[in-house]
Every structure is written in structure tokens, then in C-alpha cells.
Amino acid sequence: RFKAVIFDLDGVITDTAHYHYLAWKRLAESQGVHFDHAFNENLKGIDRMGSLDLILASSKRVYTPEEKLALADEKNRHYQELIATMSSADLLPGAVRALDVVRAAGLRIGLASVSKNAFTVLGRLGITDKFDYVVDAATIARGKPDPEIFLKAARELGVAPEDCLGVEDAVAGVASIKSAGMFALGIGHPFVLTQADVVITSLGDFNLESY
Ligand code: BG6
Ligand code: MG
């Protein structure tokens, strides 16, 4: 019944969340801000500057826009060092099978990640050519939970939002899919992804016919 499937990247196709965690932790601690896995959960699906603002909210200092940009760049350089050694071994179980199932069913395939490193990560994973359209995060004005990124993917794929299935692991991402008027498949836990239409543990359980 769907005409397109639009995937998130981080946490759905590959587990870059751990690399983001390491890079944010070093940055936060350099500013005297405590950072742990629980806090990192709040940052899933949130863009770079939005994440930095959430971290610096616990700091006593006030930062100028220039200082914030420098900190965001520092975090990104560290993150890029960490992802430089990624390969197809970093694909999450079921990810390639899900992409191939969607392709075989004749549906269009999009990628809607707010990460400005998405093209690099896709390249390292070796799956760039599996997508008909990849949103360039640099062209997106409002990050998730705003629907902008999923709506842009649908428009570029030439498919109406109601004919799209969105796949997301983050609360903010599921909210973005739902406000875009799409069917939301959550990857994770139903207690967390309460807005999703269906929740599965991983793409290993992806079954296009049952949504
Ligand atoms: C999202 C991640 O996909 O991309 C976030 O879930 C990350 O954790 C965001 O902050 C932005 O990524 P980048 O690579 O542009 O800093
Ligand atoms: Mg994600």
C-alpha cells in the first residue's frame, strides 16, 4: 500500500549513536559538563547545534555564537575521526535486507537524516546506490521533530506523504514522521516510541507486508 519508504540513518541502518556519544562526552567534559548515556538519549535525532545547546544548558557559562560554532566544529572533527574507519561491518542486522525488500517491491527509497555526515557514512557503509534520494541536511532549516526533512524526501521522491512509510529510532524522528502525515515504523521500544504506529526491535524484524 505504500509507494515509498524513507529511512533515518543513525540508529536505524547503523549504530553511529556510540560515536556521537564519545564525541559529545569529550566536548561536554572539556566544558565541565557531566555527560552520560542517559543524557545522550535526549540527543538522538537532534541536529548538531540543537544538541550542543542542550549540553551547554547545564553549563554556568554563557557562550557567544562564535564560541558555540567552534565547539560544534571541535565535536564534529572528533566524530569524523571516529567514523573514518567504519565499513559495511557496521551495518545493523537486517538493514540491507530491508532496503532490498523495499526495492524488490518496487517502492521508492529515501534517506532523511539531519546528519551533515550522512553522505560520508553511507559511503563508508557502501550503500549509497541503494537510495533514490538522500536529503542533504545542509538544506534543511528546521530539524526533527519538525516534519520538514521527511516532507522534502517525499517531495523529491515524487510521492505523497500519506503514501510514505517513515522509519525512525528517535522520539523526535517519529514525531517528525507523524507531523508529516506518514505512517511511522519505530525501531526500539514501544514504551519510548509511543507516537509510532508500529514498533519493532530492529530492521531484522522488518516485514513490509504487515504495515
Ligand atoms: C542525527 C543523530 O542523525 O544526526 C544525532 O541522531 C546527531 O545524534 C545529528 O547529532 C547531527 O549529526 P551531524 O553529523 O550533522 O553532527
Ligand atoms: Mg536516528
UniProtKB/TrEMBL annotation:
This is Beta-phosphoglucomutase. The active site is at residues 8, 10. Keywords: Carbohydrate metabolism, Isomerase, Magnesium, Metal-binding, Phosphoprotein. CDD domains: HAD_BPGM. Its EC number is 5.4.2.6. Pfam families: Hydrolase. It comes from Rugamonas aquatica. It is an enzyme of class 5 (isomerase). The gene is pgmB.
